[in-house]
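Quick start: load a record and inspect it. Here is Spore coat protein:
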Amino acid sequence: MSFQENAEALYTETFDDISREYEQLIEIIDSEHVTLNTTNITAALSLQAIVITLIILAVQLTIEDPDTADLISEQILAVHRLQTKKKTIIQVIGSRHVEITLSSLEIAVSVQILTDVLTALLTELDIL
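Running the structure step on this input writes:
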């Protein structure tokens, strides 16, 4: 498998894992004047998966022992899986004039931390 194919497969696997752990169910029944504001959760999850993929690829490229690189990569994914579980269920039944706002603040914070980790890793490896 080429590097590009490996990167694409890793991204797809990471995104699928993150998406599966982030569930939202919004049910609005018999309501009037409901406003629902959401940010683009899928884009935020995709960005998160990209940064995780870049960290894992950097680890795999810089650690010469493939077994050690794979072990570290699996640990990175395992820790992140534990942190990303989120389930949101909102039901609005028989209500009027309801405003619901959902955001991806947790994902944005996670992406910032992951970006800092990636920057530190690349700096330590003298790539940046």
